[in-house]
Automatic annotation (TrEMBL):
PROSITE patterns the record matches: LD_TPASE
Residue ranges annotated for the L,D-TPase catalytic domain, each copy included: 116-227
PANTHER family: EXPORTED PROTEIN, L,D-TRANSPEPTIDASE
Biological processes annotated in GO: cell wall organization; peptidoglycan-protein cross-linking; regulation of cell shape
Pfam families for the chain: YkuD
Full protein name: Murein L,D-transpeptidase
């Protein structure tokens, strides 16, 4: 390990930021493998069928199960047995809310428009975007925030430390494009799926391309505003 890497690790430990969030393979085990399909009809069968473009009859079929199972496997939902239960429908419903936000995520005016450039985080819809006044500059993009007992803290923040190649000492994993805004909580990319439940250990997880764009657009001292409440917390 080079001297610069050692410095980063020591600084991360001093700030208490190391290991706040870990990739899905560390936090929740390896990505789900295909399991046997269930024949059971789930409580959200019709909603899930409609979301997946399946015939909406409210009855589980082998084809339904395979389609549901593929969705579960892709998004790290366990058990991935093709059951149309509340966790699977919760992810789908969240995706629908995110799509409905369109290019006007701050329609309700919850994120301040008098701060200039600001990164907004809506915990309810698991969305983030960058705006300048009332002008949308980037996003909205899906994010993955803190799970129950590790909630991403709400309120007005500022980015205070950035580390493009941050490393978590606690879990011995990379946290690329880290931009810390509240203690150990930061924007950063993950290797896993941002829709995978139950959530992070407090950080705002992003897809790599989105995290890289945030890195290019934000600076130390820029405002961050977090509001809402994530389902299940």
């Amino acid at each position: 390990m080079g001297a610069s890497a050692a410095v980063r690790r020591r600084l991360g430990a001093a700030l208490g930021v190391a290991g706040m969030v870990v990739p899905l393979t560390v936090a929740f085990g390896a990505p789900a493998q295909a399991a046997s399909c269930t024949t059971r009809t789930g409580p959200y069968q019709k909603e899930v069928e409609k979301f997946l473009g399946r015939p909406v009859d409210g009855r589980q079929s082998p084809a339904d199960c395979k389609a549901i199972q593929a969705f579960q496997t892709k998004h790290g939902i366990s058990p991935n047995i093709g059951y149309a239960g509340p966790i699977t429908w919760g992810v789908m419903d969240l995706m629908l809310q995110q799509k409905a936000a369109g290019k006007n995520p701050n329609k309700a005016g919850r994120c301040p428009t008098n701060k200039g450039r600001i990164a907004c985080v809506d915990l309810t819809r698991q969305l983030s975007w960058i705006q300048d006044g009332k002008t949308l500059k980037f996003g909205p993009v899906p994010v993955r925030t803190g799970r129950d007992h590790y909630e991403t803290r709400t309120g007005a923040k500022k980015i205070y430390w950035r580390d493009k190649d941050h490393w978590s000492d606690l879990y011995d994993v990379a946290m690329p494009y880290s931009q810390f805004f509240d203690g150990g909580q930061a924007f950063h990319s993950i290797a896993g799926d941002v829709w995978s439940p139950p959530g992070s250990h407090g950080c705002v997880n992003m897809r790599k391309g989105d995290a890289a764009k945030y890195w290019d657009m934000l600076r130390n001292g820029d405002d961050v505003f977090v509001y809402g409440r994530k389902r299940g917390t």
